[in-house]
Amino acid sequence: MTRERPFTFECSRCGVCCTHLRGRNFGKYLGLMLLPDEISLFPRELIKPLYRYAANDPVPADRLRVWMYQLDADVCPHYVGEKGCRIYDKRPSSCRAFPFEYTRGEKIVVHRGTCPEAKKLDFKDGDMIRLPGLYVRPALRVHDWYRRHLDDNPHQPFDVYDLGAQAWVGILEGITEEDEAFIRRLK
């Protein structure tokens, strides 16, 4: 049996997460995830859709067809080198939660590949951990928005806007065996 255990994490404000925003994720080239109320923080030309209800999917009357957005930039336009983030107190939920993310079943994913401080954490994938308080609310905000749209439409796939292809693709397109194994561990 795995025990939940607390740990400490302190962001060094190195800027790596602000300068490596786009990358491959489950076979797609994606940017920084933004909730609809966060897109006004960035220049309009850098905002692209991220998720939408599939074309054949009936959209509930109170929902937007596009329900999540992404920033199409490698470097955040608000990042100013050693000075850091110009909008730090207003930054998006994904930035506030990084390098942590809630997934299905309230499990936590730690993005160690891009965060030098996260690489130092002394637990293994699958360990039950208690997320540091500062990261809980923003991580849950993104997770809850995502789950709300999936729970509203549990049997319909949704589309993802791939920045590399500059096109909508099905959520399952391009997923590798390694991706599938990771998804199974989250269930």
What does the model show?
With 187 residues, the chain is of the alpha+beta class. It has one domain. It has 5 helices and 11 strands, in the order βαβββββαββαβαββα. The protein has helices at residues 16-19, 93-97, 116-119, 133-152, 177-186; strands at residues 5-6, 23-25, 28-30, 32-34, 47-53, 66-71, 100-102, 108-110, 129-130, 158-162, 167-170. The strands form 4 sheets. Strands 4-6-5-10-11 form a 5-stranded antiparallel sheet. A two-stranded parallel ribbon has the order 1-9. Strand 10 and strand 11 (167-170) form a beta hairpin. The longest helix is centred in the C-terminal third of the chain and has 20 residues, at 133-152. It is globular, with a radius of gyration of 17 Å. The mean pLDDT is 80.
